[in-house]
Amino acid sequence: MKKTFLTFILASAVSTTTMAQVPVYLDDSKPMEERVEDALARMTVEEKVAMTHAQSKFCSPGVQRLGIPEVWMTDGPHGIRPEVLWDEWDQAGWTNDSCVAYPALTCLAATWNPEMSRLYGKSIGEEARYRKKTVILGPGVNIYRTPLNGRNFEYMGEDPYLASRMVVPYVEGVQQNGVAVCVKHFALNNHEVNRHTTNVIVDDRALYEIYLPAFKAAVQEGKAWSVMAAYNLYKNQHLCHNQYMLNDILKGEWGFDGVVVSDWGGTHDTPQAITNGLDMEFGTWTDGLSGGASKAYDNYYLAHPYLKLIKEGKVGTKELDDKVRRILRLIFRTEMDRNRPYGSMNSEEHYAAARRIAEEGIVLLKNEGNVLPIDLNKVKKLLVVGENAVKMMTVGGGSSSLKVQREISPLDGIKARVAGKAEVQWARGYVGDASGEYNGVVTGQDLRDNRSPQELIDEAVKMASEADCVIFIGGLNKSAGQDCEDSDRKGLNLSYGQDNVIAALAKANKNLVVVNISGNAIAMPWIKEVPAVVQDWYIGSEAGPALAAILMGDANPSGKLPFTFPVRLEDNSAHALGEFVYERSNEVIDVKYNESIFVGYRWADKQKKVKPLFPFGHGLSYTTFVYGKAVADKKEMSADEVLTITVPVTNTGNREGAEVVQLYISDLKSSLPRPVKELKGFAKVKLAPGETKEVTFTIAKDALSYFDDARHEWVAEPGKFEAIVAASATDIRSKVAFELK
Ligand code: GLC
């Protein structure tokens, strides 16, 4: 009896002691905000200041003595960047950090399938988790204002509604791994030249209707745990410490409770960094890519200069505590969440996800004469032409550059797919970017070729005249002046004389397919001579198998363009009306978005004579779809009601396919200027041959509203509207009139 009693006393003493020793901030059972306050109360002012800025290229301190972990950031939106040295951009040379390259986000947007976004976020989040990263520096959702922007390939196109619907599941998918997203670049970073000095001048209607919605959706619906502020300026304040964007809108109007991270080198001022909404300062005095000061961390704007102001009593610690509360929330949601999964890397599931997203995002732009899908019963000699058939595209392009475990090229994918059925030859066609290294990651390819352009064309034409089918694979690449960070293109046309090669091939063989690999629209002066055109994005590790599956018909293309392909650059509103600066300037330079809300198809719809080369939302299939008449469940709706639109869609071809049915809203009469129509719904529906499905859209007043900048609020104005059901911005299938009372 005695022994048992004694044991009981001892045990309860130990357990009481143990319970008493677990501080609130370490106790998972306690509410988040209690843990935050407890940790904050235990920290010294030096520890708080240290937490608000980097201690290395990609990490910031926790609190060692309290067991609060460090925060580790990693690029990027398409895959987990290889490790760099502590204080350099150079490769650390690790041998365990090769990754899966997922398709670029333009390809994800082109799937028009939010489930692909969820799959994408989950998969890339698992890789970041396995690599022990706290935050993925992505996704990017800057709007496609101009086809010259070097980073459009990292973003989700020209329409705020599409980008909003596609970013939310990506955020949820990543964060379910206990890894934070860092939605970027907030905001108005719509071109690269002068990205550190461009002061964007834009009206509130365009700001709220076009440039902010995707960020707002990521924050309010996706619950993003961090946001990256952009390099550029707005109202003459750098976005990394901007009262209007960070305090008034993001943290004020939207109630964002997470962390604002500067872009690398985007912080320029201590007082503004203290008061204007910045929470974590990274990469100061670097260009965000490869150059910069070393061992500068103690001198960061939120480092000793900040501590000095506090010690001298010149500033208080109110802002500091708010920054640290947000950083602690980030840490409790990630590093200190004991229940989060462990992640995985380079798994077959991840490769399958990369391939599936790629296949769903490839867009069939043109297919006449039934060149596609390639019939291997007839085609016995295949000629592939072009540098992009072989060139690695996962290396280069800026901070999204990767060190992949594998990248199967288009040529290798095609060869593997037709092995034993057709002979495949390859001709260079042109020489573009023969470099094979970026930031210390080498491709191992030697693409040098000293032959003249004419020799290369002659070789390709001769081989084309002897082939049953020719596939030209060209487009842009990830080198400066193409699709690359910190640079923009100078024009819409392809480089390296590719147009001449394509024109020559079209004369040599009518069974020609042009595959454009790019993250941007390109001019196609040869379009009338080419029967089949495929928009193939930067689609990552599984590039070859995915493209081959589409070309050979194993997969039926279902992608739709997330941005307009204009015929000429001046058909785009940023170049017709807006302002676009090509020259680099170290001084702050104003860029006026004169086109206001008329971006992309919103501009194209207003042009009477000019039609796009390929419109927003365009994409063909190997089958055909017929839409029935759209029907509304009511003729008029009040502001607190919803209207339901249903439309039957039938697969009238002989193979299964998926169609993206688009819903646009047209406000027939409004007090303020409005676009002809705006995307407010879409549904990707899979149909067997002959199958019909009813597609349903629900319209509430927010789908009818515009932002009234004078009243600073969204307004749904009573009056007549039209619901427009379409297969693209110019392929309208059915309209339904209704009235908002
Ligand atoms: C770069 C980019 C940003 C990236 C960061 C870290 O300059 O602008 O997207 O995440 O710096 O590499």
Describe this structure in words.
Among the domains are: 351-563, Glycoside hydrolase family 3 C-terminal domain (Rossmann fold); 624-740, Immunoglobulin-like. The chain contains 19 helices and 29 strands. The mean pLDDT is 96. The N and C termini lie far apart (82 Å). Strand 13 and strand 14 form a beta hairpin. The strands form seven sheets. The chain has a six-stranded mixed sheet with strand order 1-2-3-4-6-9. Strands 10-17-16-15-11-12 form a six-stranded mixed sheet, with helices on both faces. By secondary structure, it is an alpha/beta fold. The site of alpha-D-glucopyranose (GLC) has 9 residues, from loops.
The number of E-state strands comes to 29
Bound small-molecule species = alpha-D-glucopyranose
Which word captures the global form?
A: globular
Strand order of the largest sheet: 1-2-3-4-6-9
> Under the CATH scheme, which architecture of the domain at 351-563 would be assigned?
3-Layer(aba) Sandwich
Computed CA radius of gyration, to the nearest angstrom: 27 Å
CATH superfamily of the domain at 351-563: Glycoside hydrolase family 3 C-terminal domain
CATH topology of the domain at 351-563: Rossmann fold
Mean pLDDT across all amino acids: 96
Q: Unreliable runs, pLDDT <50, ≥5 residues? A: none
Largest sheet: 6 strands, mixed
Strand proportion, as a percent range, falls in 15-25%
Instruction: Give the number of helices.
Output: 19
Structural class: alpha/beta
Summarize the structure.
The chain has 741 residues and is α/β, with parallel strands linked by helices. Helix content is 27%, strand content 19%.
